[in-house]
Amino acid sequence: MEVFNFSANNSILSNFVTEIRDVKIQKDSMRFRRNIERIGEILSYEMSKNLNYSSINVITPLGEKTVPILNDKLVLCSVLRAGLPLHQGILNYFDSIENAFISAYRHHLTKEDFEIKVEYLATPSLDSKILILADPMLATGNSLVAVYDTLKKYGKNKQIHIISVIAAQEGIDFVSKHFPKNTNLWVATIDQKLNSKGYIIPGLGDAGDLAFGPKL
């Protein structure tokens, strides 16, 4: 798996990442969602450079111009519910992309041990399409692997792109072992460790709660 880590170079992206981490700013849930969306837009733009294009002729009021346009068929699958703002950011840049949604959550057996449960899926066929998985927090990687295992039965995709906001190195290593070699990870920044409960440190907290309010 190839990893594109955009914290390696300075850009405006770091402003948005800083704000979603900041305990004072992240209390504004609307701003939190918008920052996640903007991060999705930036990562989508960067990812688009890795896709396939064909040339067409377009007629302008003053002449004709040969231009490249995207010709890959894309399916965007987001992990509910935290993935929704990131999903919207990606959707803003890919007008004709097909959409899939899946629920994957931690079912805690003890305070520290958990299993991933998948209980809802809506997806088009994935045959011969490029699959984009949107999950803002790549922590242990167990959720993404469970999602991928569930999606396999819906068609053989051409390639996989994972878009995340913050990833832990441990999760990246785990996903690399379970995803195909032609998988690319596009991530705004990487944190180096997880705590005993499998949450990213320093991370930002629970992305779903910050975006949509606490759950029972």
What does this structure look like?
With 216 residues, the protein is of the alpha/beta class. The protein has a single domain (2-53, 66-212), classed as Rossmann fold, CATH 3.40.50.2020. The protein has six helices and twelve strands. It has helices at residues 13-21, 29-48, 84-91, 142-151, 169-178, 207-212; strands spanning 2-5, 53-60, 63-70, 74-80, 98-108, 114-122, 130-134, 137-138, 159-168, 183-191, 193-194, 200-201. α1 packs antiparallel against α2 and α2 packs across α3. The N and C termini lie far apart (36 Å). The mean pLDDT is 93.
Question: Top keywords for this entry?
Answer:
216 residues, 29% helix, Rossmann fold, alpha/beta, eight-stranded mixed beta sheet
Low-confidence stretches: none
How confident overall, as mean pLDDT? Answer: 93
Q: What fraction of residues sit in β-strands?
A: 35-45%
What share of residues is helical?
25-40%
* CATH class value: Alpha Beta
CATH architectural arrangement = 3-Layer(aba) Sandwich
N-to-C series of helices and strands: EHHEEEHEEEEHEHEEEH
* Largest sheet report: 8 strands, mixed
What global shape is seen?
Answer: globular
- What is the CATH fold-level name? Rossmann fold
Tally of individual helices: 6
The tally of strands reads: 12
Count up the domains.
Answer: 1
CA radius of gyration = 18 Å
Distance between the termini: 36 Å
Q: What structural class is derived from the secondary structure elements?
A: alpha/beta
